[in-house]
């Protein structure tokens, strides 16, 4: 699969504009569609000099906080393996911490209340310490756990130690064996491996650069130490778009992408949130998932359109300067080369659910049941009021959306097999409002409708 030539040229032009306008030594990017890298581009040179060497799609850049998404997926893999529960307090597994009542889910979603950064020297530019040293520095809560969003790099250092304790190996080895190796991400590493871009800072008032330091951050490494390439990070974007390849259950990935904590900025409409390890964005009604990343000398971004599966990755070797190029690259693809809709086709398997379709009433509220391609049905319109989708769940059905997400629904039939009641979270839906031929909790007035 490839993009239209005109689309590729527009993407090349936009990337070159970003490198020039934002004064980036080099910037690389890739677009993913259908689980494949369909375009990659580079602009600038690795050292920023006109005669310098250009990067390639195999050049490593540091991805900063995108590292956290690998940590989060490994935590969810451990949950699925039965090693933990998201509701577990961290003290259950790391008894030496002073904030033992914080839950694993709160750490994943940045609602733990833990401080954002470490005490002491600027951790991103200095060698790190082990976990005992991190705790000894005085890690503390800044707010009551579970009450607000507060981004915490320290929290992901704690999750890295959690992985190490429960897997019996360093966090990065667990990520390597459980995620990177199965996905074929051979150029995603804890420390740089040539060819790798140097970390550079560009002087804000002069055309000069300054080399940024690179260290092993040890206990804080899970917060932002991984390095990757366009080719590898595109594979991670494909994973996020649903190509899990056995690394994670599809249902678990869906669970990870439900927004949990709104990143609320006073005076600014809510547009961003955090899910279980992933950032979420709402841009003009379109939902995106991914993560940004920054460390001294590097900037990175990964973003996937949840509906279409189109994704973009972008990386630069500069401490500051990169704008909204990731979103704009995706916009160009959508405008110039939109996804072709999946053709409609007959679904003969719906015949055994056909007797459910049509009007149903919850009290005097009217809902229409319509079948869909998930193997289930829609009760009303998802996203409107209490409308929701339902999928098979054992002998009954389970809600996927909104108010009824996770709630069971049971279809009750009369002696002839005709469905007469939908029992949903104790509510009863009948074919007509308060159908006298069906049992309605609370009974029906002897006068009926009068």
UniProtKB/TrEMBL annotation:
Gene3D superfamilies: DD-peptidase/beta-lactamase superfamily
Domain Beta-lactamase-related: 13-324
Domain of life (superkingdom): Bacteria
Alphabetical list of InterPro entries matching this protein: AmpC-like (IPR050491), Beta-lactam-related (IPR001466), Beta-lactam/transpept-like (IPR012338), DUF7586 (IPR056008)
DUF7586 domain residues: 351-431
Signal peptide: none
Stored Pfam families: Beta-lactamase, DUF7586
PANTHER family named in the record: D-ALANYL-D-ALANINE CARBOXYPEPTIDASE, D-ALANYL-D-ALANINE-CARBOXYPEPTIDASE/ENDOPEPTIDASE AMPH
Identification of the protein by name: Beta-lactamase family protein
């Amino acid at each position: 699969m490839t993009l239209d030539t005109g689309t590729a040229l527009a993407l090349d032009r936009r990337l070159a504009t970003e490198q020039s306008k934002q004064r980036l030594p080099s910037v690389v990017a890739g677009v993913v569609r259908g689980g494949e890298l369909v375009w990659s581009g580079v602009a600038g040179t690795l050292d920023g000099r006109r005669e310098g060497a250009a990067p390639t799609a195999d050049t490593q850049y540091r991805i900063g906080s995108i590292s956290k998404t690998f940590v989060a997926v490994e935590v969810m893999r451990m949950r699925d393996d039965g090693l933990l529960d998201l509701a577990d307090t961290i003290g259950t597994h790391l008894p030496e911490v002073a904030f033992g009542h914080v839950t694993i889910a709160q750490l994943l979603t940045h609602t733990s209340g833990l401080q954002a950064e470490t005490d002491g020297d600027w951790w991103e530019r200095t060698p790190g310490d082990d976990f005992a040293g991190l705790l000894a520095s005085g890690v503390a809560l800044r707010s009551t756990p579970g009450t607000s969003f507060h981004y915490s790099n320290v929290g992901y250092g704690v999750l890295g130690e959690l992985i190490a304790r429960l897997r019996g190996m360093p966090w990065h080895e667990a990520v390597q064996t459980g995620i990177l190796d199965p996905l074929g991400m051979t150029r995603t590493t804890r420390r740089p491996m040539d060819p790798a871009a140097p970390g550079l800072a560009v002087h804000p008032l002069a055309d000069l650069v300054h080399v940024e330091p690179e260290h092993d951050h040890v206990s804080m490494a899970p917060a932002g130490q991984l390095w990757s390439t366009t080719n590898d990070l595109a594979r991670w974007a494909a994973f996020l778009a649903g190509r899990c390849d056995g690394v994670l259950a599809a249902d678990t990935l869906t669970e990870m992408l439900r927004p949990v904590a709104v990143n609320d900025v006073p005076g600014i409409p809510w547009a961003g949130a955090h899910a279980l390890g992933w950032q979420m964005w709402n841009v003009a009604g379109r939902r995106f998932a991914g993560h940004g990343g920054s460390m001294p000398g590097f900037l990175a971004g990964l973003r996937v359109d949840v509906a279409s599966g189109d994704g973009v990755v972008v990386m630069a070797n500069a401490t500051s300067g990169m704008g909204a190029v990731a979103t704009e690259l995706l916009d160009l693809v959508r405008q110039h080369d939109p996804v072709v809709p999946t053709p409609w086709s007959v679904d003969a398997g719906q015949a055994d659910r056909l007797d459910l379709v049509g009007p149903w009433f919850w009290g005097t509220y009217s809902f229409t049941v319509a079948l869909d391609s998930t193997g289930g049905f829609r009760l009303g319109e998802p996203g409107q009021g209490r409308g929701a989708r339902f999928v098979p769940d054992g002998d009954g059905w389970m809600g996927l959306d909104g108010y009824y997400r996770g709630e069971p629904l049971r279809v009750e039939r009369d002696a002839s097999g005709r469905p007469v009641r939908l029992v949903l979270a104790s509510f009863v839906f009948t074919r007509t409002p308060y159908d006298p031929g069906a049992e309605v909790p609370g009974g029906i007035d002897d006068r009926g409708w009068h």
